[in-house]
Specification:
Layout: E1 17-25, E2 28-35, E3 40-44, H1 53-72, E4 76-80, E5 88-95
Antiparallel strand pairs: 1-2, 1-5, 2-3, 4-5
Length: 108
């Protein structure tokens, strides 16, 4: 009997995050992470349903920060926009200055 080599599963290639949508639903907190490449990752935020919105925003920011660090070795900053609805929040995610590529015309 011939045995096959076990293939190592590759980690999924996630895009660099550029935005977050956080929704409060009756089932719990839901997130969508928008990527620079045009993709979107969605899922449930791992916090209790009755979590305060400010704490849920902080948890979503930590999740995206860790995602960027783990998959892209990049540090990001999350800035929440003023809420348009009492159950929905959006944030802009930007690379920190140390991760940004050099400007054209500068040499380093």
């Amino acid at each position: 009997m011939v045995r096959r080599k076990k293939e190592q599963k590759k980690r999924p290639v996630w895009g660099i995050p550029k935005g977050i949508v956080l929704l409060a639903t009756p089932e719990g907190w839901r997130t969508s992470v928008l990527t620079v490449e045009g993709g979107m990752l969605g899922g449930r935020l791992d916090v209790p349903i009755n979590t305060d919105p400010q704490d849920a925003r902080a948890a979503a920011a930590v999740m995206v920060t860790e995602l960027a660090r783990d998959f892209h070795n990049a540090d990001v900053e999350v800035n929440w926009d003023p809420p348009q609805e009492p159950w929905s929040w959006t944030a802009q995610v930007t690379l920190t200055a140390e991760n940004e590529p050099p400007s054209p015309g500068t040499e380093g």
